[in-house]
Specification:
The protein is of the alpha+beta class. Helix content is 35%, strand content 23%. It is elongated, with a radius of gyration of 22 Å. The structure holds zinc ion (3 copies). The site of one zinc ion (ZN) has 5 residues, from loops.
Length: 360
Amino acid sequence: MSRTRLDRVRARLADQGVDALLVGPSADLRWLVGYEAMPLERLTMLVVPVDGDPTLFVPGLEVARAEASGATDLADLSAWGETDDPIALVAGTVPGDGRLAVQDQLWTSFTLALQETLPGAEWVPGSTVTAPLRMVKDDHEVAALHAVGAAIDDVHARVADLLRPGRTETEVGRDIAELIRGTHDQVSFVIVASGPNGASPHHELSDRVIEVGDPVVVDIGGVLDGYCSDETRNYVVGDVDPAYRELHDVLEAAQAAGVDAVRPGVTAESVDAAARAVIDDAGWGEQFIHRTGHGIGVDGHEPPWIVAGDVTELAPGMAFSVEPGIYVAGRHGARIEDIVVVTEDGVASANHRPRGLTVA
Ligand code: ZN
Ligand code: ZN
Ligand code: ZN
């Protein structure tokens, strides 16, 4: 949200031989100019040319919101009226035979209209420009990730009290959402996966009644000051099935091995390999059905990807989850997730809740 970010984008446009970056309502827009634009059928678009000043095209009725965000201190404002053609206005500011980067999440309706209006242009994904820049967090962003990490820790600290036999996942989820609202600006997601539902990594909430002996996977996140939290812990209501404890011990060792592998200079995929090796060795490899983690920042999921094939070299300021899981279909599952930040000489965790099984 600063001149610096716009300057870094312009330098990268020059490097990549791209004439302009076109950004609609998105995490890129928030990161660049601090504007949380509404994703509407009316076009909002920031045009960052390789040379010259950026322009923010905004529907007339959104001008007040754009100005209040501070975005108009960083970009020239161009308000368009209800009978104007915003696509033509944007197209008029970029070279018709140029190389244009268009933000990855821009609605297809806008992208197709731009392509029709600028048939001579070459198009590249906006993430080729912004992702490598967004991946390395500055000091302000690292502080924000630690702050939101502490906020979600505070919520997890109160989860065990909410997990009582006879309550449904939905009831517990509603209480958790309330706690997230109390410690964050926004609730992003609430997963309360009890018993066999724990075997489905993205199960959210259901009317299943939590019973004595159920393991419960709780994966929750919110947004505070523009940055995301995401933390998973596993709970057991009452007596712990020894088989589940055994699985959880393996998982805890795997998660620790993943975090221990994090330092500048190693690849993203090596962190996945370190966590996965522990689970493979224990014979649960087939039950670890997803990557070890994802980057996080203004988006809940962003590069780097902690998975085989992502050879991004870790550097200080990169932030991502380390969240191995073991899922036994029809029975139970577990996942332990922390957000970590690469430091000059190693790693710092943004989450500090105990990683062991919590008996509620
Ligand atoms: Zn996920
Ligand atoms: Zn999560
Ligand atoms: Zn996650």
